[in-house]
């Protein structure tokens, strides 16, 4: 699978200010210069918005964005109901 | 003790009227407060403040790091970058081991702590940020500046309520005097415009309650003053021994001539009505500077617009400087930027020395009858200023005064 879940792109650009041009299916968190703290935060945002729980170290660190997207799609399945409770609003 | 002269070689500010030193100065000289209703304070008894607007802080700070910084940290980092550039220094080229960072704050990330508390209570531990502690602790402004600028010398975060900024400048000056560093990045930051803190200020009785246009509400030294209006922001200076600054060809904006600090040891929120202990901080700063009181050309007052502070401070100014130097109080425009206020006001005092201009006190026609002090009102006053002082008198009675002079 070579597509990126739109939430991944949204979180990477909005929360982490990763330039959209760098966000490619084969990108990894390492290649995007996301350190362990950033990856852990990314995992929380994905959990809070999509309800997808994942071990941030195992799943996100070494995987490509295509891998992560496939995992999210598999977990979310057809339901796809997005929770939209922000963790932060005044930072 | 024979002290080396300490120079202010760089200045950076982010305030409710500007994202830089120059725009802040223009805004303060215009004498108009930006206080307004803040949507995030909906339902609070005090639902207005002077806030930093018109800037995407995360964009300004840069990618991959902003998420781990509270608003107070972002302010400090941005002001520090401006200050270091203003000083003509390049962190990629300096000896970071000789660079100290001293950045104060009063409340640190209390806003972040509150957000994390809500997340924990409503949605459980998995909903809280792995950066939760970083969003909270008062030392992060100094730490993030050090990380961003490869400053591996000592760093710390003075915390003396509303005088934290002046305390930071004074501590940094001492570190330079003692040779602990060659460059000090010093100042203070604050951001506590969020419901818990604003409700606390309203309940403490210190905050002005809504009465017409919030922009007209903070009127330091006015007879009808009604309390403080909240502000936020940061100011950071680059300090160096003047001889070192000259040796590298830097032109100082000003010199720190002296500093004095005392503690009322009286009451958590009320200044001692005699003002004697606060006055002792003024005397200590003047003594440290080797100045006679009548040599002071200008007073940048704490001037919070609370009934008690302004009465006590007006009497103190009258006693300490009987020659009636011109007085300003920037909180009329900026609101009370809390821990950052002392650093911002010291920065404005530096600009007064440089420009020979004393900004007006916003919303003031004339000081309360009986306050025998020369308040600058309505328009900036052009007057040569060689020596000036800035007062900061914090909650808890923590008083700090800094004496600044033209180089």
TrEMBL record, chain A:
Pfam families assigned: PP-binding
Domain Carrier: residue ranges: 2-76
Gene3D superfamilies in the record: ACP-like (1.10.1200.10)
InterPro entries on file: ACP-like_sf, PP-bd_ACP
Identification of the protein by name: Acyl carrier protein
Record organism: Streptomyces griseus subsp. griseus (strain JCM 4626 / CBS 651.72 / NBRC 13350 / KCC S-0626 / ISP 5235)
From TrEMBL, chain B:
Positions of the Ketosynthase family 3 (KS3) domain: 3-406
InterPro entries reported for this sequence: Beta-ketoacyl_synthase, Ketoacyl_synth_AS, Ketoacyl_synth_C, Ketoacyl_synth_N, PKS_Beta-ketoAc_synthase_dom, Thiolase-like
GO biological process, one term: fatty acid biosynthetic process
Signal peptide per UniProt: none
SUPFAM superfamilies associated with the record: Thiolase-like
GO molecular function: 3-oxoacyl-[acyl-carrier-protein] synthase activity
Name by which UniProt lists this protein: 3-oxoacyl-ACP synthase II
Protein's organism: Streptomyces griseus subsp. griseus (strain JCM 4626 / CBS 651.72 / NBRC 13350 / KCC S-0626 / ISP 5235)
């Amino acid at each position: 699978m070579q597509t990126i879940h739109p939430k991944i792109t949204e979180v990477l650009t909005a929360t982490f200010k990763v330039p959209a041009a760098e966000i490619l299916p084969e990108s990894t968190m390492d290649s995007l210069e996301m350190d362990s703290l950033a990856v852990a935060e990314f995992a929380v945002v994905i959990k809070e918005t999509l309800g997808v729980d994942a071990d941030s170290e195992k799943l996100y660190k070494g995987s490509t964005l295509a891998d992560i997207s496939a995992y999210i799609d598999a977990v979310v399945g057809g339901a796809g109901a997005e929770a939209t409770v922000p963790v932060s609003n005044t930072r | 003790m024979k002290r080396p002269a300490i120079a202010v070689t760089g200045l950076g500010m982010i305030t409710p009227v500007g994202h830089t030193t120059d725009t802040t100065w223009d805004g303060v000289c215009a004498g108009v407060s930006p206080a307004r209703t803040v949507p995030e304070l909906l339902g609070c008894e005090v639902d207005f403040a002077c806030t930093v607007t018109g800037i995407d802080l995360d964009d300004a700070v840069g990618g991959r790091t902003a998420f781990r910084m509270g608003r107070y940290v972002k302010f400090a980092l941005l002001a520090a970058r401006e200050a270091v550039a203003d000083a003509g220094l390049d962190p990629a080229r300096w000896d970071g081991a000789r660079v100290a960072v001293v950045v104060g704050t009063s409340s640190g990330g209390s806003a972040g702590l509150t957000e994390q508390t809500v997340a924990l209570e409503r949605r459980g531990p998995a909903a809280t940020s792995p950066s939760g502690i970083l969003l909270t602790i008062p030392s992060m402004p100094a730490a993030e500046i050090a990380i961003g600028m490869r400053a591996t010398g000592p760093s710390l975060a003075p915390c003396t309520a509303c005088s934290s900024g002046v305390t930071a400048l004074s501590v940094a000056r001492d570190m330079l005097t003692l040779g602990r560093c060659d460059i000090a990045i010093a100042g203070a930051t604050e951001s506590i415009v969020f419901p818990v803190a604003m409700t606390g200020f309203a309940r403490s009785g210190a905050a002005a309650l809504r009465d017409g246009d919030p922009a007209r509400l903070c009127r330091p030294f006015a007879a009808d003053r009604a309390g403080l209006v909240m502000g936020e922001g940061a100011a950071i200076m680059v300090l160096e021994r003047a001889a070192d600054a000259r040796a590298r060809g830097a032109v100082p904006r000003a010199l720190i001539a002296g500093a004095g600090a005392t503690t009322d040891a009286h009451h958590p929120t009320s200044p001692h009505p005699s003002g004697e202990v606060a006055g002792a901080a003024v005397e200590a700063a003047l003594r440290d500077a080797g100045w006679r009181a009548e040599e002071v050309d200008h007073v940048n007052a704490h001037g919070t617009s609370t009934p008690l502070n302004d009465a006590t401070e007006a009497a103190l100014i009258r006693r300490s400087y009987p020659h009636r130097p011109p007085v300003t109080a920037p909180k009329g425009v900026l609101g009370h930027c809390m821990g950052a206020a002392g650093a911002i006001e010291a920065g404005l005092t530096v600009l007064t020395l440089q420009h020979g201009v004393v900004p007006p006190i916003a919303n003031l026609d004339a000081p309360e009858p009986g306050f025998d002090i020369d308040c600058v009102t309505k328009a900036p006053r052009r007057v040569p200023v060689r020596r000036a002082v800035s007062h900061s008198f914090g909650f808890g009675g923590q008083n700090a005064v800094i004496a600044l002079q033209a180089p």
